[in-house]
């Protein structure tokens, strides 16, 4: 597969709504209970899906807030699936998630569901999610997914609240028979605070632990906002091959996979980064390089997604490492870590 991220993204994240019943401490969206009156309409959503499909049909993820707070979420999903778009969803674990709603999603053709799990116990998870009972609702949802034979992805935000229980988390992820553990390193945006981030030394320790973990678990692992994990993987794989008296080039490591097996929706054969293979659309149609980089580049109500993605100076600069300044501009590993996997 020869992907040109200058023209088309590998993955599109669409924030269907900011409405959500949870009160997560880190929430990028600063979600509210009620829906915004200027959310993209169903007809606008259909046009957006048409535009996405024409961009060589990237993966589409419905996020929020909580996508299930939109009554027309299944109509939107059905339109996308019938168009031929691969769709997954990251709902919040609330009473809205029932076996019946998951069955409906399966009938529509959603490829995968992803739920957040931020601690191995209800005490840790519920505190982080700001809602008592969220942990048990997540466990219930995972059970429903297993019963309906739908692949499960677990998202975890690594922060000072849970960095010391990640080993217990890994055991739980294995027991839950998930296909992917998607690990997000907390970014201080929205409700997220800088004091909740782990330290540089803790990042390094977690990265090296994740690499060793990836060699012995049954699920795949990927990171978001963990640029240097890519560097750690290459260093560790080259050390492993040196012990085996084999010669390996770092380019081979990059192109042959980061960690574990690939399962489910697929993974880009090269690095995906904010604005470079990755694009985020807000509930009101604003377009950003990612949800964690709040630089507005346009709105799909006035310009097509393709026009914004391909021609916005912000996107173009993000796809050109020679434009980076400061520490990123002089870093000898810049080309490597700036192509981290989203």
UniProtKB/TrEMBL annotation:
Keywords: 4Fe-4S, Iron, Iron-sulfur, Metal-binding, S-adenosyl-L-methionine. Residues 6-216 form the Radical SAM core domain. Its cofactor is [4Fe-4S] cluster. GO terms for molecular function: 4 iron, 4 sulfur cluster binding; catalytic activity; metal ion binding. SMART domains: Elp3. The keyword Magnesium does not apply. PANTHER family: RADICAL SAM DOMAIN PROTEIN, TUNGSTEN-CONTAINING ALDEHYDE FERREDOXIN OXIDOREDUCTASE COFACTOR MODIFYING PROTEIN. This is Coenzyme PQQ synthesis protein. It comes from Bacillus cereus (strain ZK / E33L).
């Amino acid at each position: 597969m020869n992907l040109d991220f200058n023209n088309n993204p590998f993955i599109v994240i669409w924030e269907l709504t900011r409405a959500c019943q949870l009160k997560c401490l880190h929430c990028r969206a600063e979600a509210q209970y009620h829906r915004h009156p200027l959310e993209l309409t169903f007809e606008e959503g259909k046009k957006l899906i048409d535009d996405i499909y024409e961009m060589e049909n990237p993966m589409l993820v419905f996020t929020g807030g909580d996508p299930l707070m939109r009554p027309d979420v299944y109509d939107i999903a059905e339109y996308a699936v019938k168009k031929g778009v691969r769709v997954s969803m990251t709902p919040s674990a609330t009473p809205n998630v029932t076996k019946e709603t998951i069955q409906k999603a399966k009938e529509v053709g959603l490829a995968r569901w992803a739920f957040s799990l931020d601690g191995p116990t209800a005490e840790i998870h519920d505190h982080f999610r700001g809602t008592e009972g969220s942990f048990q609702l997540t466990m219930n949802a995972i059970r429903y997914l297993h019963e309906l034979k739908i692949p499960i992805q677990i998202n975890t935000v690594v922060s000072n609240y849970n960095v010391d229980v990640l080993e217990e988390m890994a055991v739980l992820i294995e027991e839950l028979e998930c296909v992917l553990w998607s690990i997000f390193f907390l970014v201080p945006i929205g409700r997220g605070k800088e004091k909740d981030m782990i330290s540089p030394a803790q990042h390094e320790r977690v990265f090296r632990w994740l690499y060793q973990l990836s060699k012995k678990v049954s699920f795949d692992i990927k990171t978001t906002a963990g640029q240097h994990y890519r560097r750690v993987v290459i260093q560790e794989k080259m050390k492993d091959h040196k012990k085996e008296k084999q010669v390996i080039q770092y380019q081979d490591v990059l192109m042959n996979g980061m960690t574990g097996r690939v399962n489910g929706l697929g993974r880009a054969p090269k690095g995906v980064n904010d604005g470079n293979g990755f694009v985020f659309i807000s509930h009101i149609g604003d377009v950003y390089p990612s949800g964690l980089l709040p630089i507005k580049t346009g709105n799909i109500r006035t310009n097509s997604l393709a026009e914004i993605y391909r021609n916005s100076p912000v996107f173009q600069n993000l796809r050109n490492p020679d434009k980076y300044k400061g520490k990123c501009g002089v870093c000898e590993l810049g080309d490597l870590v700036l192509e981290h996997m989203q």
